[in-house]
Specification:
Elements (H helix, E strand, L loop, with lengths): L2 H25 L2 H4 L5 H23 L22 H13 L3 H24 L3 H10 L6 H6 L6 H13 L3 H19 L18 H6 L32 E8 L4 H17 L2 H19 L8 E7 L9 E10 L5 E8 L6 E5 L2 E6 L4 E9 L3 E3 L3 E6 L5 E7 L5 E3 L15 E24 L11 H7 L3 E18 L15 H18 L3 E7 L4 E6 L2 H13 L22 H6 L5 E5 L5 H12 L4 E6 L7 H19 L3 E5 L5 H12 L1
Helix pairs in contact: 1-12, 3-11, 4-5, 4-18, 5-6, 5-9, 5-18, 8-9, 9-18, 11-12, 17-18
């Protein structure tokens, strides 16, 4: 038995004894005068009570109230937005004065590389010439932006951090302003489409102490800049992964009555020491509450029966599904304080209602809650979090109850419109036009007759005019081998807003339709993803192949709606494309889905193209343009799209607000 349990029992015993003694003294006041011989013992008891009470006060002040913190599944999961890293660096530099030199060096290098790409694209020149133009300041008429790449230090930079603070100049603020001005100038020079206007005027000078302490006008909003809202990160429950119908997570005392206990002990002790019946009486009331909290019955949550129903039997990704949860108390006793939270999977978004309920349930009674979620691909079974407390709230039991009602969300692989496949084909018949003559529909050429040629291909007009047999060849149509390749690295899980789907979701949704269309065109289609979780499904055909692909879209970890966990490879770099490159057929075309969030994805497309694969990049554009970091990443992505197109690689720059089929039609017109 631990010391705390022994101490609690001793306190209960002392409290009960004092309660009885005090009650007796109140009922028979003469008993007080009958205890002179025990004055020292009573005095000692009073001192012990006071000291113990002060100890409890200390525990209460240290916040030792233990209650289960429930998750917030009704809030959407927070995905990072493009440019968040740049904004964070600037925030750390200007507000927190952290990593000033490291962040500035990183931002300068990043901006210089981008500027080289922009100037190269505009001037159609080499990298060396682009750098010369930048260093000469010939790329813009804006003096502030031109100086950024000329290596000229400002007066604030010359003064250094301490000098700038004392002199009233602000080195970091000056750098931030020049950075913003240069980004805006690159937008103008690079002809990048942005919708928001920003003010690049330097902010008003901050006071000495504001600069010293890193304060700014929007300090109050700084903590809201980055938010993660996965279920585990917002609750005290370590995990919600359970395969048991019922799992007892914890049974604990909440220590909610610590304050009352402390007051009671101190009051009784002081009353005993000073022989003040009023204080003793007040203390006995508190002791009675403490004993009541300690001896209350433990809530029995194992008797709860939970049923979950959906209004859709076979939902597809993106569908809205209404969930009805019924909880019935068959424990045989009342549950006076019951908190229920349906732990909706992270990839779902609650669109209507609230998946939580706070109620009390008599034995045999039931409660119900309803809410609507937008579902995402995958197979799910999720628990109901139950937090039950007794009447006093002093004892709390936390349990996970998982009803036998799972949900399976599988994409349909529907056929939308034809997908433009390039002329890299196989020996099998298909829909891809080739330059070879033979059987087909479109006229190709006329050749000499060969024995065995079918009669319906004889050129009878030539026979009638010249008397010589000739055979008509049509353009052969063959099948292509196509590998749909996903960029599912953590950097690809970015979205345009907190409640917006991330780029991987956009990619998988569009690819499921594309897979069905390519399959319907008679091509051999496969799937792959480059990430630390290998994903490879070789190109093939047939109904079984189609069904396997459908299940893979829904269940493969590499295509999960949730970002992969960061993995430590002990400084050993592993190229995410290694396993794909080993298995990719030499004749396979590649449809690469990537938001082009960094240079690696563009480099993958270039390397595959140089190895002989015909590459088509489908890039969902999830960039926004409100902050300087977001505007910078939009320019970078535009530069990558232009880089790939310059090398003859097809790129569909796709706005996810529009259907991909419309973008495909535009692309077909552009590539025709």
């Amino acid at each position: 038995m631990d010391i705390e349990a022994l101490l609690n029992r001793a306190l209960i015993a002392i409290g009960a004894l004092l309660f009885v003694a005090a009650a007796a003294m109140i009922a028979v006041p003469s008993l007080g005068s009958a205890l002179p011989s025990a004055t020292q013992g009573v005095f000692l008891v009073g001192i012990v009570a006071v000291v113990t009470g002060l100890g409890v006060v200390r525990r209460r002040l240290r916040g030792e109230v233990e209650e289960t913190v429930t998750p917030n599944p009704e809030r959407p999961a927070g995905n990072p937005m493009p440019g968040e890293d740049v904004d964070r660096m600037l925030y750390e530099m200007t507000h927190l004065r952290q990593g000033v030199n490291e962040n500035r060096e990183h931002l300068e290098d990043r901006l210089e590389n981008l500027a080289v790409a922009v100037v190269r694209n505009r001037e159609d020149c080499s990298v060396e010439e682009a750098r010369r133009i930048l260093e000469a300041g010939e790329w813009t008429d804006n003096e502030t932006a031109a100086e950024f790449f000329q290596g000229e230090r400002t007066a604030a930079e010359e003064a250094g951090l301490s000098g700038s603070l004392l002199s009233g100049t602000d080195d970091v603020a000056a750098f931030e302003n020049r950075f913003r001005v240069t980004v805006e100038e690159l937008i103008e020079v690079g002809d990048v489409d942005v919708s928001h206007e920003v003010d690049t005027e330097e902010s008003e000078d901050r006071s000495f102490f504001d600069r010293l302490l890193g304060r700014s006008d929007d300090d109050g909003d700084g903590e809201d800049a980055v938010e993660s809202n996965w279920n585990e990160s917002n609750s005290t429950i370590p995990t919600f992964d359970t395969s048991e119908p019922f799992e007892d997570v914890s049974l604990q005392h909440t220590n909610r009555w610590l304050g009352v206990t402390a007051f009671a002990l101190v009051a009784i002790g002081a009353g005993v020491v000073t022989f003040t019946p009023g204080l003793m009486l007040a203390g006995t009331v508190g002791i009675a509450y403490t004993i009541y909290a300690r001896v209350s019955a433990v809530p029995r949550t194992e008797g709860l029966v939970v049923e979950r129903e959906f209004d859709a039997d076979d939902p597809e990704p993106g569908d809205l599904v209404e969930v009805t949860l019924t909880v019935r108390n068959e424990s045989g006793s009342m549950l006076p304080d019951l908190r229920l939270v349906d732990v909706v999977p992270d990839s779902f978004v609650v669109t209507e209602g609230v998946p939580r309920l706070h109620t009390a349930l008599q034995s045999g009674a039931q409660a119900q809650l309803e809410y609507t979620v937008r579902v995402e691909r995958g197979e799910y079974e999720w628990p109901l979090l139950v937090v039950a407390r007794d009447f006093s709230g002093g004892v709390e039991r936390t349990s996970l109850v998982t009803p036998d009602a799972g949900m399976r969300v599988v994409p349909p692989l529907r056929v939308t419109n034809d997908i433009p496949v390039r002329a890299q084909t196989t020996q099998y018949a298909g829909d891809v036009d080739t330059k070879q003559g033979g059987a087909g529909l479109e006229f190709h050429s006329v050749r000499e007759y060969r024995p065995g040629d079918p009669m319906n291909r004889i050129n009878w007009k030539q026979v009638a005019s010249t008397g010589e047999l000739a055979t008509i060849d049509f353009r052969q149509e063959k099948a292509a081998t196509v590998t749909i390749l996903f960029d599912t690295r953590q950097s690809a899980y970015i979205s345009a807003g907190v409640d917006e789907p991330h780029a991987v979701d956009h990619s998988v949704h569009a690819a499921s339709d594309m897979f069905g269309a390519l399959y319907d065109q008679g091509n051999l289609v496969g799937l792959a993803a480059f990430d630390t979780v290998p994903c490879w499904y070789a190109p093939g055909a047939g109904s079984e192949h189609l069904e396997n692909a459908r299940v893979l879209f829904a269940q493969h970890p590499a295509l999960s709606p949730r970002p992969p966990e960061r993995q430590d490879h002990e400084s050993q770099y592993i190229d995410p494309m290694t396993h794909v490159r080993r298995r990719l057929p030499s004749t396979s075309q590649v449809f690469l889905f990537s938001p082009l969030a960094d240079d690696y994805a563009a480099e993958v497309a270039r390397r595959l193209d140089s190895e002989g694969h015909l590459v088509t990049v489908i890039s969902p554009d999830v960039t926004v343009d409100e902050t300087v970091g977001q505007r910078l990443t939009r320019i970078e992505r535009t530069a990558r799209v232009r880089y790939l197109r310059e090398r003859g690689i097809r790129v569909m720059d796709w706005n996810p607000d529009e259907r991909l089929s419309l973008e495909v039609e535009k692309a077909q017109t552009r590539w025709a």
